[in-house]
Amino acid sequence: MEQDKPTAIQRLTKKREKELLEMIGKQQIHLTLERMYLIRAFEEKAEELYGLGKTHGTMHLSIGQEGTALGACTAVKSGYDYLLNHHRGHGHCLAWGGGVKEMMAEFMGKETGYCRGRGGSMHIADVERNNLGANGIVGGGLPMSVGVGLSIQMRGTDQVCLAIFGDGAANTGPFHETLNMASIWNLPVIFLCENNQYAMSMSLGRAFNIDYISQRGCAYNIPAVTVDGNDFLAVYDAVMNATERARSGEGPTLVECITYRWRGHSRSDRQLYRTRDEIKEWREKDPITRLAGKLVKAKMLTEDEQVAIKEKTRQSIEDALVYAEDSPAPDVSTVMEGVYAD
Amino acid sequence: MAREVIMPRFGMTQEEATIVRWIVQDGQQVEYGDPLCEVTTDKVNMEVEAPADGILGGIRFEEGVTVLVTEVIAFILEEGEAVPEVVNTQPRGSEKKIPLEITRGEKPVKATPVATRMAEQAHLDLSTIPGTGNGGKITRQDVEDFITGQMGEVKVVGGKVRASPAARRIARERGVGFDKVRGSGPRGRIQGWDLNEMRKTKDTLSPGRQSAVIQLQGIRRTIAERMQGSWQNIPHITFSLDIDMSRAIAMRQLLNARLDESEGTISISAVLIKACAAALGQHPLLNSYFRDGEILMHPDVNIGLAVALEEGLIVPVIHHADRKGLFQIAEEVGDLSRRARTGDLQPGDVVDGTFTISNLGMYAVDQFTAIINPPQVAILAVGRIADRFMPDETNRPELRPMMTITLSVDHRVVDGVAAARFLSTLQGILETAGAQWG
Amino acid sequence: MLTDMNLEVNQHSVVRELTYAEALREALRQAMQKDASVFLIGEDIGIYGGAFGVTAGLVEEFGSERVIDTPISEAAIAGACAGAALTGMRPVGEIQFMDFVTLSMEQLALQAAKVRFMFGGKASVPMVLRMPSGSGTGAAAQHSESLENLLVHIPGLKVVMPSNPYDAKGLLLASIYDNNPVIFVEHKLLYKIRGHVPEEMYQVPLSETKVVREGKDVTIVATSIMVARALEAAEKLQEEGIEVEIIDPRTLNPLDEDPIIKSVVKTGRAIVVHEAVRTGGYGGEIVARIASSEAFDYLEAPVRRLAGLDIPIPYNRELERKAVPQVEDIIEEVRGLIRGAY
Fold first, then answer.
1. Are B270 and B329 in contact (CB under 8 A)?
2. Top-ranked range on mean pLDDT: pick from B35-39, B93-97, B223-227
3. C121 in contact with B, Cβ within 8 Å
4. How many CB pairs under 8 A join A and C?
5. Would you tell me how many other CB atoms lie within 10 Å of the CB of residue B62?
6. C65–A133 C-beta distance less than 8 A
7. What are the sequence ranges of the domains in chain A?
8. Residue in B165, B189, B211 nearest the CB of C296
9. In angstroms, rounded to a whole number, what is the distance separating the alpha carbons of residues A262 and A282?
10. What is the pLDDT of residue B13?
11. What is the CATH number of domain C210-338?
12. Annotated catalytic residue, options C12, C143, C153, C196
């Protein structure tokens, strides 16, 4: 691995890229690309629905961050390992293998949604497949990752916990408590920082006095690396390494993925804190087109296949929409359900 | 021998009075009982009377001066006698009593000596008693009020009664109102147990509930107040009628003969109850309640029979008298009377009466008028049965057992004609009584 | 006197006395022996034995992997309990002083309490968080809090306050095996009191209110240490011919209110006694429930609250004593109520 300077962005060599593609294989990489397109289409549809008033509350779109989502979630065994993520979590949920139908239904507050309409966009979880939920509190999932790590250790399995958080969470108190505990106890947690360079309107430059969040790893003696979050393969590589460490009992790793969100923080964001030029610049680093480009170059993808994938995802979204719209809303008389377990 | 004229106490709670004017002047001759001066308490004007024949002398206070109760204000002297010295006087004049400062903990509590003593005897903490005297000083009245719960008006502005939820429930259940109920709770609040005040049971004061109360006010006092209230508020009109009781008596004797000793006897009262119940059936207006400007026609005929006790009057009720036979009524009358005298009546025995009979026939009373028991609208006063000479069919005098009944009705509800008709019906029932009553 | 409260003495168990702290320890030990999923986590609970000695000896028996000492990280402690509970374990966390639960509030209120509901009833968080509360040790304002009502106010949490050793063990075992997050509040001054505690594992059901003493003149609803003080007051009042009925809810939320209502119907007079500050305290909840129940129609006087003064706990011992209800305050309050002072 090349490194410009300590804790700088780590870039993959061409050789390594080739190795990875071979390791992943054509079938799997097609599925990955398909998922990325699915996330993109899903997010765009969600945006449209929100604009039409068909979903309510608030929505945090991850358009532009698909590379990180897929890179991280495919490098672990989704469904076996655990996922904790943040409020901008639609992409992670889908990358974890979540169903667009159940997600769409949840957005519309329907009984058939992942959370039976009780959770909404910020609290989507698929507990059966060990997706322990998106979280409405910045950094909210981090302390729980300590518990998950302890649980894994006590039960003696080789599971890992993928804890995804944003740049904003890296300044909260619980972030520090968590990293410290993970370090002293050698917990099998991958701390994945999805650094899209803005915590709402607060830019990296104003919130931090360091260049890379990965620099914080050394404060807790946790190995850390920064990668290009829009390069699927770079993320995949870094998370895979971290996962291997964790599974073999070597403890936590901090993986920082530099990326960018194309849309505002939420729907009500007027985005006065960044320039159109900046957004335009990052749109040219679109993770989907970059991966597709690499695949075409490596002769693992044809134009037709690409078109087919796009059409397939478009259709999935349409089907999901019909499913969600036809689904029943929760029965109002069940409003008290689910507060306490028996 | 000089006689002291003292400022008397006119009311139980009075502590002082102000001299309004001297009717008799110093040196004037007076006779025993002559009014000497006019005084006023906060409630009423009264006269102080001479305790003996003699000459009024040694007037110690002028008009307009407020004097403590039991203080000497003048003397009745014999001819040529000198005015005696008065020793051990209390602070007087228009200056108020010097308040006694009692410090309990941090808070100084002002109270009169009388109030202090009363509170001590009642094991009360003065600091919990609100004072209405000057500067919040606690007076004897305050302590008494605290104990009996009569601070201020029972009825709060707006016509709402201060009553605990329990009292309200009991009142609701019994279909009775709070008028004339005196509250024993703080600030005159009516408590649940106040609604049972007519009940004479042994455990009226369970030690756990009212350990601070020194004394019951007495059934007599309560009765007195109720009587006054009734007489003052209800326009009574009365109607008397003489009833020939020969057939009723004959029937009664016949029926009694059928009973053996253990079954008791049928009393005249029982006969009256049965007769009234039947009459009321035909004249339901006299079986109603008048409350808050509304006439409530009562579905049941519950006849109360006034029973005289040492302490006063109590009225146990025969419920549903219209549906009971004479034997049953007689049995109940006997039982209730007995229990009334031994003090074993239950609350349920005295509630929900719709009409009352007061029978003084066992005494030497020919006729009398009774006071209505609100919210009832009528009451029947029954005199003794005595032989009188009445004209027979040929207008010759014949001895017949006659009984004078007097009906009092609430004129707001029952007019003369209605009353007369009722009496007529009743007369008919009694004068044609037969064995079919059994 | 306190042994009289333990009416459910099992015929077969040996009558033995333990302190409240020993009873708690026994519950923890027995649960950990029986169940590998139960573990302890908190500050200084290992070799130090816990700030109040409750966990003494347990690390020697179960090892530091199951009796985990943590750095000073209350948020992470609570979060770790939540995360572990979400993934198959039954953690019992300890917050060293109830005052510090304020640092755990986000993880308790927004994560542990709500995960089940937000995820449509598809997850559960079977954790216990124990904490010593209350004043009387001269520890002053920041180490003497009674904050149970803050936690009562959060649906999804259960709040339990045992008043004696028998209940302490039984309720702790019931809490560990309850499938919800339970806040377990132990009054510091109770740790040393002795009482009958059966040797076997037994549970005192949650949400079961107990009539501790029967009486006909006034109902006292008391929590935690106020139960013992109310009992002492009752002995004294009995000499004056006043019979006090004492009720211990034991679980503050969800509350079993029927025995309280029945009692007030019987006596017509009620007082709620607790250490926590009057304004916004649990007493208000009880008074409201009584006032809106059928008991209202049987009240002869207003329902009274005897509670802590609305001040932080002072350092001076005399002032500290004055700040919370004492036995003599309870006696005076009852006397006043009986005499019609209110």
1. yes
2. B35-39
3. no
4. 153
5. 11
6. no
7. 2-324
8. B165
9. 8
10. 55
11. 3.40.50.920
12. C143
Task: Please name the residues in contact with C26: beta carbons below 8 A apart, sequence gap of 6 or more.
Answer: C18, C169, C197
| Burial class, A231, CB count within 10 angstroms (exposed 0-12 / middle 13-18 / buried 19+) | buried
B251 against C195, higher pLDDT: C195
Residue range B398-429, pLDDT digits in tens: 999 999 999 999 999 999 999 999 999 999 99
Nearest to B265 by CA among B252, B278, B275, B277: B252
User: Which residue is closest to C178 within chain A, CA to CA?
Assistant: A342
Q: What is the ipTM of this complex?
A: 0.86
Q: Is C315 on the interface with B (CB under 8 A)?
A: no
Q: What backbone phi and psi angles, to 5 degrees, belong to A325?
A: -65, -35
- C111 — contact with chain A (CB < 8 Å)? yes
In chain A, residues 112-151 whose CB comes closer than 8 Å to chain C: 113-119, 123, 125, 127-128, 130, 132-133, 135-137, 140-151
Which residue among C216, C242, C341 sits closest to B186, beta carbon to beta carbon? C341
Q: What is the CATH number of domain A2-324?
A: 3.40.50.970
In chain B, the domains with their CATH numbers are 3-77 (2.40.50.100), 100-148 (4.10.320.10), 155-225 (4.10.320.10), 234-437 (3.30.559.10)
C chain contacts of residue A145, beta-carbon cutoff 8 Å: 83
CB B344 within 8 A of CB B376: no
**Chain C residues with CB-CB distance to A128 below 8 A:** 122
Subunits with 3+ Cβ pairs within 8 Å of C are A, B
CATH T-level fold of C2-196? Rossmann fold (3.40.50)
Q: Please compute the mean of the pLDDT values over residues A50-74 and round it to a whole number.
A: 91
Q: Do C297 and B166 touch (CB under 8 A)?
A: yes
Q: What is the mean pLDDT of residues A198-219?
A: 93
pLDDT in tens, C211-256: 999 999 999 999 999 999 999 999 999 999 999 999 999 999 999 9
